[in-house]
């Protein structure tokens, strides 16, 4: 029986028009590069954001300069705070309806993200979501030692609710690394969704159990798991 669904935030349950990755692209290109948004999404989606910068620089520029990455990350955080001041943040279509349906089934809703806690909480506050109402727990990149694709965030969430078996947990996300994270945590279902960073074809390359186009498509998968 499924006891918990772990959802990624941006692109999965939160619609913020890719502002994080557009801001990441801006901060990197201000350091003298000319990467496209598609490149940033391909290598950065779902990762803790400093690690995303390092991955992008390594893959596309052959650079492993930690000092440069740290400087870009510092600019990124400032730019992102500015963007979130004015940006309209919306729930992904049917997110709240799905959360309600899962609660009616006594299934826990956990949000997890490659953001730091401050950024994640800013998003949640703008949405008006409350812990214990829309969701049961939030786990961020700064809550654990190792980030995606390592399973630490999911395992941390499982520990909070005394869940010991990955066969009772589902992971849903919009990027390849979400699917890898869920598989590494032993989740019974790892579900890609096409509303965010990666395309159907990109998600398919990670061999998820399912790929969906709308959050409500998750319900029959959970019911039949």
Question: What are the secondary-structure elements, in order, as H or E?
Answer: EEHHHHEHEHEHEHEHEH
For this structure, the CATH topology of the largest domain is Rossmann fold
Overall residue-averaged pLDDT value:
94
Q: What CATH architecture of the largest domain would you give?
A: 3-Layer(aba) Sandwich
Number of helices: 10
* Share in helix: 40-55%
Write down the Rg.
Answer: 17 Å
Strand order of the largest sheet: 5-4-1-6-7-8
Instruction: Specify the structural class.
Output: alpha/beta
Low-pLDDT regions: none
Strand content: 5-15%
- The total number of structural domains is 2
CATH homologous superfamily heading of the largest domain: HAD superfamily/HAD-like
Largest sheet: 6 strands, parallel
Shape: globular
| β-strand number | 8
Q: What is the CATH C-level name of the largest domain?
A: Alpha Beta
């Amino acid at each position: 029986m499924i006891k918990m669904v772990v959802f990624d935030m941006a692109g999965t349950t939160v619609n913020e028009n890719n502002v994080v990755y557009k801001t990441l692209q801006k901060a990197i290109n201000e350091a003298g590069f000319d990467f496209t948004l598609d490149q940033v999404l391909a290598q950065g989606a779902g990762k803790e954001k400093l690690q995303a910068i390092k991955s992008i620089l390594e893959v596309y520029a052959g650079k492993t300069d930690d000092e440069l990455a740290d400087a870009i990350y510092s600019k990124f955080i400032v730019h992102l705070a500015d963007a979130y001041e004015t940006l309209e943040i919306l729930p992904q279509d049917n997110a709240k309806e799905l959360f309600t349906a899962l609660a009616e089934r006594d299934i826990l809703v956990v949000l997890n993200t490659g953001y730091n806690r401050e950024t994640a909480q800013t998003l949640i506050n703008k949405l008006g979501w409350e812990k214990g109402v829309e969701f049961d727990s939030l786990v961020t990149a700064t809550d654990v030692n190792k980030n995606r694709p390592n399973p630490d965030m999911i395992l941390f969430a499982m520990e909070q609710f005394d869940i010991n078996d990955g066969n009772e947990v589902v992971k849903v996300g919009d990027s390849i690394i979400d699917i890898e994270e869920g598989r590494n945590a032993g989740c019974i279902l790892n579900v890609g969704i096409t509303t965010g960073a990666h395309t159907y074809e990109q998600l398919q390359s990670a061999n998820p159990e399912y790929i969906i186009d709308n959050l409500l498509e998750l319900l029959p998968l959970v019911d039949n798991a």
